[in-house]
Amino acid sequence: MQNTNFGTNARLLWVLIFSVAMAYLEAAVVVYLRTIYYPQGFEFPLKAISAATLFIELGREAATVAMLVAIGIICGRSKIERFAYLMLSFGLWDILYYVWLRVFIGWPASLLTWDILFLIPLPWVGPVLAPILISLALVLSALYLIIREDRRVTFHFPRWAWWIEIVAGLIIIASFLWDVRSVVGGGYPRPFRWDIFSLGLIAGLFVFIWQARAAASGKLP
To answer: Does residue 35 have a pLDDT over 80?
Structure first.
């Protein structure tokens, strides 16, 4: 499935090109939606949309995830490298998405501007800074793994570490869903739970860095 004629540098370049283009497309769609539903500019409370439009939007988000997974599978040569390319494309896409929105409509006004981040299975909301911090962590972690794999030094992530990363991810998601009842009910989100978000992000980064240091010192196979 992968093109073995492409080296790591070429793969990284094409992932960057894909992420820039995908972020442009995603931002353009959001601009159209906001023109229709938020002509005065996006703000809470959320506007009601038809069931048909909501279904299409959920499908678009699922398609986006599928595309990012596909890039990881196509570019990676091992399980960990495929996951690394998935993280890289996701992180780049998410950051560049906000860059394009800023170019198109001058939004967000700041990194603390609230946004609706995802709709599956319920609306995720939070300041723009939160997903950008996650994306930066994903990009840096992915580059570390990709460079390591390129040097033919496999990074073995033990099962317990995977479980901690999963729990850390769920904690982060909980911070985005904390006010879901208020948001879905047509209200305003309360102050973001940076404490919950930070707990998940720090836990995930700590485990990854711990394993990376262990690998660098030769304590991992």
So the answer is: yes
